[in-house]
Records
---
Amino acid sequence: MQNVHIKRPQEPKQVIQYRGRFAPSPSGLLHFGSLIAALASFLDAKAFINKRGEQGKWLVRIEDIDPPREQTGASTEILKTLEAFGLHWDETELYQSKQRLYYREILSDLTQKKLSYFCQCTRANIKALGGIYQGHCLTKNHQPEGSALRLINQNGLHQFNDLFQGDVVCNQALANEDFIIHRKDGLFAYQLAVVADDIAQKITHVVRGCDLLEPTARQLTLFQTFNDSFLKCTTPQYGHIPLAITNDGYKLSKQNKAPAINNAIPQPALMAALTFLGQSPLPELTNASVDEIIQWASKHWQRSLVPKVIEINID
Ligand code: GLU
Ligand code: ZN
């Protein structure tokens, strides 16, 4: 009898991991607009199944690096709202306020590589010079005191392929600016912290609202700069969903005092959010539990149904 060789199925060499995230700033409670971003990023992660049959991971990061804008208790309330809506995150949430040493290290690496410089221009100065920063302080050798720190922008990336919006072209002059990575008031700039933590959390997909389309160019530039100089990292894929605006045309935001969502009866807002995202939830889900709605939505999530327009009116 011949030897029978049983061929074992080969383990795929590299199993693709999906790591998404929701990154709210605790400057207020979640409103319908931020619920949509949370839900879209969650569903995009959970709809992804790799070769081992594992769903994507979905992480939460609290972006609390701007204490003057923070609302006491908002972080806890945001997390409670996510739980109430069945959006359970996979790893311990990350607080940006605990990442300061890491951001410092990155800033000092950039300085060492001569990729940053101090700037003392005011907004009024820059406005008077045409509104786009033209590297005015590049050769001035300002002291750190009273200065902002700017990145020497060698890449100026301004185009990318968005998961929902397709090809996006950002304002090139803005994308080419030497933008601020550490603020005059001592706070870390959003662009720096967000990219540093997307790297720290190994994020592969960033799904968020269209209000962050323009900053994406700067974030792509930072990824490229890090990669070219001292920090090997993979640039995530970006996807931007439409913004919810009120009937009179305002973006729903904490600044506009958009009403917080109701944690006690999450189903109606959840169904409305799915409809907003183009997903046509089955009418019978209206009477289902939150977990059943979320399960249905994860199974049926289709990127191609997410509307391509930038703004949609809601009641
Ligand atoms: N923390 C930012 C905000 O609440 C979002 C950051 C991001 O998703 O990249 O607007
Ligand atoms: Zn300057």
---
Amino acid sequence: MAILNILHYPDERLHTVAKPVTVFDEHLQQFVADMAETMYQAPGIGLAATQVNVHQRVVVIDLSESKDELLVLINPEIIEMDGQITYEEGCLSVPGIYEEVDRAERIKVRAQRVNGETFEFAADELLAVCIQHELDHLNGKVFIEKLSRLKFNRILQKLKKNQRKTL
Ligand code: GNR
Ligand code: NI
């Protein structure tokens, strides 16, 4: 097991569009285990492979208090969505920034397990928000890019200032 390095905005690599996973082998299993370990120790409720600079369509999520309900989504797709929810989001790639974002409230998801088996499920509320947030990462999008230009620019200035301080 290993803790992976998480990219921080505005790292250009966060804008890479991830490719579908085609090989379901032990290397994928090991990578998923490392992603889960990285998410738990961050700590976060979700992590997309893009955030650890691996541009494959892999997501891990765990919303449980006890951190023992790992959801692994390989090649996830949203096949239905409806409703609207406004939720205050954060992101491990944008530390210290929390902003309200509008998303679909209910979604249907099709994905594969780490063994390649396809499954479908419905999600709502925080799970729906988190899946949409992670799918955006796989498509090279970060949540602050969904905000107004004014808010986005303010956040970008703040991130750049913080980056200067930590150099
Ligand atoms: O840990 C996380 N919390 C969170 C809160 C509200 C909406 C989305 C998230 S996902 C985030 C972890 C992360 O950056 N995943 O990409
Ligand atoms: Ni994120």
